Amino acid sequence: MKKGFFILFTILFVKINAEIRSVWVLPWDIATEESIDEVIATAVSCNQNELLVEVRYRADALFDTSKGAYLYPNPEPKSYILEDASFDPLAYILKKAHQKGLAVQAWVVVFNATPREQSYIQQNYIYNNHKDWITYNFNGSQMNIDRQSGYFIDPGIPEVQEYLLNILGNLAGGYPELDGIHLDYIRYPESDLGFHPVSLARYNEYCQNQEEITYNEWRIMQVTNFVENAYFQLKEINPTLQLTAAVVPDIAEANVDYAQDWQSWLKKGIIDRVYPMAYDVQYAKFKKQLEQIKLLQMKEKIVIGLRAWNGNGNSLAVGNGNSYNVKEIAKKITLTRDLGFAGVSLFSYSGLQKGNAFVQLARLSFPEKKEYPRENISPKLNEITFSEPKYPAEAKLTRLNSEIIMHLKIPKDGFWNWELYKDTLLVSNQRFYQKGENREILNIINPQISANLEPGNYIVHLYQEKSSFQYLIPVELVTPNE
After folding, report:
1. Which one of 3.75.10.10, 3.20.20.480, 3.20.20.80, 3.40.30.10 gives the CATH number of domain 17-372?
2. Domain 2-9+381-477 is of which CATH architecture?
3. Where would I find the Glycosyl hydrolase-like domain in this sequence (predicted)?
4. Single pTM value for the model
5. What are the distances in angstroms from CA 166 to CA 71, 171, 174, 372, 391?
């Protein structure tokens, strides 16, 4: 890559031996102060460092929606899981967990709108107010929930996306101390669902006016667009807030069945981390999945989700006669570390609490504390000084088939502007970039660029607003055979 030749920031990073050790915590385990105290005490004693707490179960809230209403409306009621509707579990857990050095992400169920139980469906906010948003099957009928965990609303409806972005914005605006927002069910329910009439009409219009694509490509586009819009919205509200997601571990299955193209989210830089839910109890299948995921070469952004529950409700502790127990989980943790992933996440806290299983697992796999890698989470935590340019920005321009790709090496997290010049300005963009390697497909930013951009020499102007430090980087557009 060509390096810029102007001044840049130097960031002094604190070198720490860090590993993400995360636990998914279900809403029933944060319903009272006492239960939250127990979650935190267990996480600390078992040397964990991140909690994913489920604060939106099914179109409800285990937090105070009025806190962020000045920015984004959230009409959803307090969850039926709470006995005391005045209690704010998220505020309490943020205060107590941060005091103990635990990071906290707000775990949000996205497109799965209702539970399965009819009694709870009847009082569900979306079911009662936006039943028309429920997705359709290929035959033109609204979905049933015989094979699902509840009704799903259709990502192909613009009002659905706007509504859910408001929910996320409400959370981010109301709780600025959050470390992250963690998306779950950020997908379609299965391959033959997602055929809502509104989505079908939009698809047909797109094919007529834009380009011919398959319907599954259209479904993928809807989910990816939502993730991208959520990412930029949340970074505008709080640039230090992480956006993460629980995802289907098999990449092909995620794309074909669920329209969840999470590898493209990582490549486009519109998600900070993914947590593949590698829940297969068979070690050989688990190992094969991890080796496939490793091929993406983005291990530092991937936290492996591990099955930590017994299907019969029994304890995972050794000695209870179960073939799948904490020893099997420990073996998977060892493999995850050997392959170099960012960490592990255990599903779930309640599954490990029975029979002292969590304590046993901690002795096997977490005998010592590990700090949470906060230098990757919040640039405000790093000391910023002015110095000689030790971390130059870099840029490269390549053509791959019909796509023009801008490769940028950014010196620090933040909102950056870049402009591409020949004799005049050709294309520009501004968004939040993470420190390190980033890619932009110029065809998406300016659809005409591929037709007008010829091989040759160009200049990339890279800078931040309200900063006198800028980069001018010479680049050459080459084609793969050059």
Report:
1. 3.20.20.80
2. Sandwich (2.60)
3. 19-305
4. 0.77
5. 9, 9, 12, 29, 37
